[in-house]
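## tool: complex_structure
## caller: assistant
## args:
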Amino acid sequence: MLIARTREELADAVTALRARHGGLALVPTMGALHAGHLTLLSVARETARAVSQPAAPAVAASIFVNPTQFGPLEDFGRYPRDEAGDLGKLADAGCDLAWLPDVSVMYPAGDATFIEVGGPALGWEGAARPGHFRGVATVVAKLFGQVRPDAAVFGDKDWQQLQVIRRMAADLSLPVRVIGAPVVRAADGLAMSSRNRFLTPPEKARAPLLYAVLCAARDAMAGGQSAGDALTAGRDRLEENGFVTDYLALVENATLLQTDRAGAGARLIAAARLGGVRLLDNIASA
Ligand code: AMP
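## result:
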């Protein structure tokens, strides 16, 4: 696996991989890698294969804990970092290139450009974390410009983020295919996340309820209950079990606008705090 830390090293690595492989797919991450991230690599490999026939495709992963997507009171300082462990996991997963830029590479002295996001970025996480998606969109656009991938893979786990990036890529005519990959869960249903390590054992035991509540809401709506009633029941169940619910909502897939019609075009999304950890999850609504 090639490892690049400067723009020059990255350019050399991308040139070498392009010469050898043809297509290139990128998986952007903030590190502290788990099985969910590694699934994105497999999806990237398959996607890249589709764009680079007949050559074997190349897959790159970036690791960058992006300061601009954290609010002043958020956990940037204590976000888990494990570069050595991450590089081992990426190499084992068959990653071809790890891109590990420094903050000064991503935000050079005198930088003055950010991407302003609207539409799907406005509610939910956008409301709970002002400036978050502005930081995400900006860093992802920079990664696209640096790596110039044919395709980039993001997890459905962060559903709203995926829609914001799709919207950005379409609006800015970025020549990259944005691909979503399914949520990877622990056996108990809890969506894998780098922040799950901060759950205490009793919280860890309770955390799968978030997914259970989403599934119960989906099933209740399939059985004829109104979205409003199903979501109210879900919020009550979360609160009774010690969660502080930020939102539990039914939204249109791409716009994130609230809807009361479950079906193929709608997603159930949730964010709730358990102790000091904010958990995010979402499922198809039908
Ligand atoms: P992060 O390192 O948390 O910024 O995540 C990097 C990428 O991995 C994002 O596209 C996430 O949506 C994705 N991801 C994180 N957790 C999961 C999961 N449990 N299943 C699928 N994708 C995930």
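## assistant note: The longest strand covers residues 244-252. DSSP finds ten helices and nine strands in the chain. Handing back to user.
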